[in-house]
Amino acid sequence: MKNLLLVTCSIVALGAVAPAFGADLAAQPVYKAPPPQVAAAIYDWSGLYIGINGGWGFSDATGGTLGGHIGYRQQMGQAVFGIEGQGNWADFSGSNVSTTFALNTNRSTTDAFGLITGLIGYTSNNVLLYAKGGAAVTSNTHQVTSTLTGLASTDNTRLGAAVGAGVEVGFAPNWSVGVEYDHLFMPDANVSFTTAAGVVATDRIRQDFDLLTLRLNYKFSPPVLKY
User: Fold this and answer.
1) Rg (Cα) of the chain, in Å, rounded?
2) How do strand 209-219 and strand 175-185 relate by DSSP bridges?
3) pTM score, whole prediction
4) At 223, phi and psi to the nearest 5?
5) Which of 52, 78, 143, 222 would bridge with 107, disulfide CB 3.0–4.6 Å?
6) What's one GO-annotated cellular component (predicted)?
7) CA-CA distance, 223 to 123, in Å (whole number)?
């Protein structure tokens, strides 16, 4: 009888403690895994692109220019390598007193030019800084005006070199805008004319000029998300 009473009291005591123990378990915090981190999109400069450009040329000959370009770039880490071809209409003209013949005035005009250049750059996401260099070709007209012999003129195409640098910013998955400076190293042009004494003389006309252009590009391959 005494054992039965002890068992009964134990069961009653256990029943009283169980709800409190369960309440303590329910109050324990539940662990939740942190939300996954989403990586920011990284702009990829790799791919074929086309674009338009326009701006100003200045030096001994000054004026406006408008044209187009096409190229391909490959990004490797933060380095970018590429090649580009560019063709522009131009209206560069200028004149100066001849350094060879004081009575002569030299005048040159450039109506078109083209560039084939290689590119190397450094990118920080959608911003690209680059330098470029390569070959240049210009279509020109050169004139010598002499108070003694009148006017002499020649048309020619000159081959030279070009170096430049620029910055470009991607503002949409396939679009970018930039500004570029270039210097064209062109050989001086020789213009021959006949003097009053019937002697054929040659004068030299300087041809180097600088370019400052704005550029708008469309890249055919879309950017790739990297994590």
Assistant:
1) 37
2) antiparallel
3) 0.73
4) -65, 155
5) 143
6) cell outer membrane
7) 14
Give the separation between CA 76 and CA 189, rounded to whole angstroms. 42
Residue 133, strand partner residues? 118, 163
Tokens in use for 24?
A: 């303590």
Distances (CA, A) of 109 to 24, 105, 201, 205, 206: 93, 14, 21, 11, 11
Cβ 140 vs Cβ 63: under 8 Å: no
Per residue in 3-62, pLDDT (tens digit) is 444 444 444 444 544 454 444 544 555 666 666 554 456 889 999 999 999 999 998 789
| CATH number corresponding to 47-219 | 2.40.160.20
Dist. CA 43–CA 172, nearest whole Å: 9
Residue type, 149: T
Q: Which of 113, 103, 31 is nearest to 66 (CA)?
A: 113
Q: How many CB atoms lie within 10 A of CB 168?
A: 23
160 beta partners: 136
